[in-house]
Structure formats: structure tokens, C-alpha cells
Design brief:
Blueprint: H1 2-20, H2 24-33, E1 45-51, E2 57-61, E3 66-67, H3 74-86, E4 95-97, H4 100-106, E5 122-124, H5 125-134, H6 138-149, H7 152-165, E6 186-187, H8 188-201, E7 213-216, E8 219-222, E9 234-242, E10 246-255, E11 258-267, H9 270-286, E12 288-294, E13 299-306, E14 312-317, E15 321-326, E16 334-338, E17 343-344, E18 352-359, E19 366-372, H10 381-394
Parallel strand pairs: 13-17
Antiparallel strand pairs: 1-2, 1-11, 3-6, 4-5, 7-8, 9-10, 10-11, 12-15, 13-14, 14-19, 16-18, 18-19
Length: about 400
């Protein structure tokens, strides 16, 4: 009897456990009905945020590494065309023929961006450059290259030569379109410098980058820049996408008299590029600031001079010394003057003889050249003789 009571109690407990145990099938059904957590947002790679007025880099995430630029390389293509226009070698009404190569490999017969150029047509530079800028037309770029230089290869040589002259050390171009090539590379920082150069040097042309659409040969195409119309003040510059590069952007906006330029690439989708472009542009204005350390010509220190007509020479800023970075970071910075000294006379006024190094935590070290603020001649014979004796007896 006791055994029966114990067994009955045990059976009841077992039934309770079974009753309380979750239904595995029901769990699986609920899991299938529950929405999957959203994937983490895609983060841009090789990010540059630049102040448009000074050219100071406010944020750099692997920004000096050479990357495949995709159609962002067309900034250099357009720059060469603008320089040819300004030099008077061509005009906006100059016409160039559409070769079979441009039509077949880069036009309507291709899968890339194009402006529907008919084969053998004569097309004005005015239309070609708008096609290259607004709808990223590969056929337009090739026609411009062939018309200006005789071949795309000769035009690419002009692009590379000009990049070096502008100090874009990471840049190496292999075509006029930006299509993938293992040797075609430029850093996001150099893309920002190139975009700023176009804005500053060709302000009369730059508004073309803000046009929302372009019509040619009865085909109207939209500008792919996701910032235009979506971010107040956005007015350029260039999108890019290839399999190797991912989705990228050179973007710019002017807000309350301040200009920012952003560059990034490596995103997996167009939608990711759109959201990241707006996020980075908001950060460019809200999270970063500039501080001017010295104006061009200001004296920032002195350097010792050996055997000179004066014992020291004033060091002056060659240009405005402006630094940028996250808001508030400037409070922790230090500045030091570096030179190989004492300097040897004679020294000409304007000679770059030192540099100002600014560094600190969470700040990308920046250096600025310092020039001699006055001419320093050699010491007279008596001073030189006395210095010789001093060195003989006492050493340097």
C-alpha cells in the first residue's frame, strides 16, 4: 500500500512535469513565425572626411590606402577635359566621333553605364562631359579620351602625369572609365583632394555635378548620387560601383557657408551606400570641427642659427595652419617645432627650414612646413674665427 501510494505520487509528479514541459513542435512553429533579427548595418571602408575650405582631413579610416575607385576615377577624366577647355585646345562645341570600340565595348552594346551614343555619330564636348558627370557614361569618357589624345591609352598617360603633378601619390589609372583593373588604384584621401581641386579651380563648371538628370538621344537618366535632394546643401560629386570596389561615393555639401567632402567605398548594396552617405555627411558637419593655429605669415617660433649674422631666425607659417578632428579633441593636443639645428647660414627668406608637428590622443598627427621669416647672412670673420677656437677647446 505504501508502495502504491509512493508510485502514485511519482506518477502524478511525472504527469505534472510532462504537462509543464514545453511542446517542442510548438516551439519550432513559434521560432518560424518570429522575425529574424535585422542584420547589422553595413559600414563604409576607407573613409575620408575633409573640410572643403582648408583641405584639412577631419577623419581618416585607412584613407591613404590605394583602392579600386570604380567610376569615381572619372573625376580625373573630367579634370583633363576641363584643362583642355581652359587651355583653348577644345571648346564645348567641339565634336568627337563615336568609335566602334566606344560604342561596342562601353556603349549600348555593353552592360555598363552609358548615354546611348550612336556609332559613328559626331557628339559635342558639351554633351559628352555632361554624360560623364551626371550619368557616369563610360562611352562618353572613351569618346572624350580618343578625341583629345588619339587613344584611351594616351589619355590615361595624361591622367597619370597630371595626378603626379597634383601630388596625388597613390593614384595610378589604367582607363578613363574606372572599370576594374588590378593596377588601377587611388586612395580615398586623394579622391577627396581631387574633388576639392575641381571645386576650387573650376567653380563655374562644378554645378554640373548637382544636376539631377540628363537627356540625350531621347533617353533621360537620373544622377545616381544619393545625397542630391536627400541632404540639404548636397551638390555633388560622384558615385562608383564595380564588383571589386563595391558601392562607393565622393560626396559634398555646403551648409551655412561650410563645405564638407566625404569619400568611402566597399559597401555591398546601393541601399547601404545611400544610408551610409547620409550618416557620414551628418557626422561631417555635426561631429567634427576646425581650429586655426596660425595664419599664413604668422611667426610661430624661432630656430637657432650657427655662424649666422643673427643667432636665431623667426619661423613663420607658409599658409594658414588649420587642424581638424572630432569636436573637443583639440584640448588634448601638443605642438612642437622640429628642425635639424642649429641651422647653417646663409638662409634665404622663405626657405623651408622646419616643421610644426601637432599630435595628441585620438588625433591623426599633422605636420606643417615653417619658413625662415627673414634673410640670415653668414657671421663676420671674427665671429667665425672665435667659433672655431671655441669648438677646438670646448667642442660642439
Amino acid at each position: 500500500m505504501n508502495l502504491q501510494r509512493k508510485f502514485g505520487a511519482f506518477a502524478l509528479a511525472a504527469l505534472l512535469v510532462i504537462a509543464l514541459a514545453p511542446d517542442a513542435d510548438a516551439q519550432r512553429r513559434r521560432a518560424r513565425r518570429a522575425p529574424a533579427p535585422p542584420p547589422p548595418p553595413a559600414i563604409a571602408q576607407h573613409v575620408t572626411i575633409m573640410d572643403g575650405a582648408s583641405g584639412s582631413i577631419l577623419r581618416c579610416e585607412d584613407c591613404e590606402t590605394a583602392i579600386p575607385p570604380a567610376s569615381m576615377a572619372k573625376l580625373m577624366t573630367v579634370l583633363i577635359v576641363l584643362e583642355q577647355l581652359r587651355a583653348g585646345r577644345i571648346s564645348y562645341d567641339t565634336t568627337f566621333p563615336v568609335s566602334e570600340y566606344a560604342w561596342r565595348e562601353h556603349g549600348a552594346m555593353s552592360a555598363g553605364s552609358h548615354m546611348f551614343l550612336p556609332i559613328n555619330a559626331q557628339v559635342r564636348v558639351r554633351d559628352l562631359i555632361q554624360g560623364a558627370v551626371i550619368v557616369s557614361a563610360n562611352d562618353a569618357c572613351v569618346v572624350l579620351a580618343e578625341g583629345i589624345a588619339g587613344s584611351e591609352q594616351a589619355f590615361v598617360a595624361m591622367m597619370n602625369r597630371r595626378a603626379q603633378e597634383l601630388g596625388l601619390r597613390s593614384a595610378h589609372f589604367r582607363n578613363a572609365t574606372g572599370l576594374d583593373d588590378p593596377e588601377q588604384r587611388i586612395s580615398s584621401a586623394d579622391l577627396a583632394r581631387l574633388a576639392r581641386h575641381i571645386m576650387v579651380t573650376y567653380p563655374e563648371f562644378y554645378p554640373v555635378y548637382s544636376r539631377r538628370q540628363f537627356t540625350y538621344n531621347n533617353h533621360t537618366q537620373a544622377n545616381r548620387n544619393p545625397l542630391l535632394g536627400a541632404y540639404e546643401g548636397a551638390d555633388g560629386v560622384k558615385t562608383g560601383h564595380t564588383d571589386e570596389s563595391g558601392y562607393g561615393l565622393v560626396g559634398s555639401a555646403l551648409v551655412n557657408g561650410e563645405r564638407r567632402i566625404i569619400v568611402f567605398n566597399g559597401l555591398p548594396t546601393m541601399a547601404a551606400r545611400n544610408s551610409e552617405a547620409q550618416r557620414l555627411m551628418r557626422a561631417a558637419f555635426n561631429d567634427y570641427a576646425l581650429a586655426q593655429i596660425a595664419a599664413a605669415g604668422d611667426e610661430v617660433g624661432q630656430a637657432r642659427v650657427r655662424l649666422g649674422s643673427r643667432a636665431t631666425v623667426p619661423l613663420v607659417a607658409q599658409r594658414n595652419i588649420v587642424i581638424g578632428g572630432p569636436r573637443g579633441v583639440q584640448q588634448g593636443l601638443t605642438a612642437r617645432i622640429v628642425y635639424d639645428g642649429p641651422l647653417r647660414a646663409p638662409i634665404a627668406e622663405g626657405d623651408v627650414v622646419a616643421r610644426l608637428v601637432i599630435e595628441g590622443p585620438n588625433f591623426r598627427t599633422q605636420e606643417f612646413p615653417l619658413a625662415a621669416g627673414r634673410k640670415i647672412g653668414r657671421a663676420n670673420w671674427f665671429s667665425r674665427a672665435f667659433e672655431g677656437l671655441r669648438l677646438t677647446f670646448f667642442g660642439p
